[in-house]
Amino acid sequence: MYDCDAGSISIDGMDVKRMKQQSLREQVGVVAQDTILFNATLRENIIYGKENASEDEIKEAVRLSALESFVSGLPNGLETVVGERGMKLSGGETTILIAHRLSTARNADEIIVLNEGRIVEIGTHGDLLDRDGIYAEMWKLQTDTNDETNEETMK
């Protein structure tokens, strides 16, 4: 990005000052610590690093980024506009929520109920209520309209 003030920088033994800038930039990649997406399609964001990328290279980039199922679930796939810094994308695909207040987790895709460090139930809110197990019992206690019962349960 910048010429050095002292010393030299070499790639494969060649001083970068002797290289054409385009050739040098084809050999060096910059990986920012912040996730930066442009207000463009997923495809355009992917090919930003290699504008002439083939369709196979784009698919391989998606695969290597573990985004295949995410992209296939979008209505416009790779043509989905992500918004500035990806603001139009959901940030919840990798969310794990730990909650004692069950109302916090009731809309989760999957709820895992632990008892003494062991998984005792897995399912959606509705499934777990239908099973009438530990989750359903905790739900009833937490949603009971009697405030004294709720205070005792939460201790």
UniProtKB/TrEMBL annotation:
Cross-referenced InterPro entries: ABC_transporter-like_ATP-bd, P-loop_NTPase, Type_1_exporter
Gene3D superfamilies: P-loop containing nucleotide triphosphate hydrolases (3.40.50.300)
Domain of life: Eukaryota
GO molecular function: ATP binding; ATP hydrolysis activity; ATPase-coupled transmembrane transporter activity
ABC transporter domain mapped to chain residues: 2-97
Protein's recorded name: ABC transporter domain-containing protein
